[in-house]
């Protein structure tokens, strides 16, 4: 890749060939990402895919094994306090601050930043006004998570990392959180990198989704691009004369069905033609990785799952 480096509109996050190994276990095997200002970008992947590892490297908390990257025009391994103040993190709940009251905690954290949000406005923004005087350890799980979000944005970050932010949210809280993230991106130009296992959440919230499976980005695009790509190949299923279940992916299902009929002695058992959804494609990738049926060099990937990172 020769285009790495500064351009007129340098992405907020640019990653090339990122690798990470823990001991002799390769977790990231060459990740490329370009995330632009004001974009809500979802990094989707199953447990253990390497999402948190990727985010921790981007946040400067973990040293990568290889590759190049820039986050807000800085290599995270060399980011100082001024760089860190431009980034908001929503990680784990603030267990160390259990005895603090909600408004006190926000007011305290606001003093760390040069242009922090007003704590009362922030409480209203995340729907915690009624809990302002409550101790942190008396909040429900969903309220705790909203407080995490409030703490993540108190310093008006340009870039916000949300690591599985809606875990424990009820549907209403999840909806309100989605509206909040959209507002931050649309009205304030905040760039958001969100990790999730939840495809529905990624589809609802993200401008673009990258699917991280087996240490590589297996697909990347807008939700509608990915859905279109997933549906481009139909899946034909049937049962062969000897009882073997068969399935084949094809862009021309009518031709395949015609061929099957031409060679069959009689009716074709259990014949079914379906267009995969984005969820089918994602689950197919995840299961294939779990089965170990994915080639180590990635050459057996289906064409419809191949996508550039940009
Ligand atoms: N400090 C560490 N030392 C050794 N292995 C680690 C370490 N941190 C993570 N791993 C391993 O690296 C892999 C990726 O972990 P990571 O937490 O990045 O995945 P994830 O996609 O965020 O998973 P989840 O969705 O479960 O949070 C896992 O197999 C994990 O066990």
TrEMBL record:
Keywords (A to Z) from UniProt: Antibiotic resistance, ATP-binding, Nucleotide-binding, Transport
GO MF terms held by the record: ATP binding
Keyword Transmembrane: no
Membrane topology note: Peripheral membrane protein
Major location category of this protein: membrane
Localisation per UniProt entry: Cell membrane
ABC transporter domain ranges (all copies): 13-239
InterPro entries linked: AAA+_ATPase (IPR003593), ABC_transporter-like_ATP-bd (IPR003439), ABC_transporter-like_CS (IPR017871), ABC_transporter_ATP-binding (IPR050763), P-loop_NTPase (IPR027417)
Residue ranges of the region described as Disordered: 286-310
SUPFAM superfamilies the UniProt entry points to: P-loop containing nucleoside triphosphate hydrolases (SSF52540)
Similarity remark: Belongs to the ABC transporter superfamily.
Protein name, UniProt field: ABC transporter ATP-binding protein
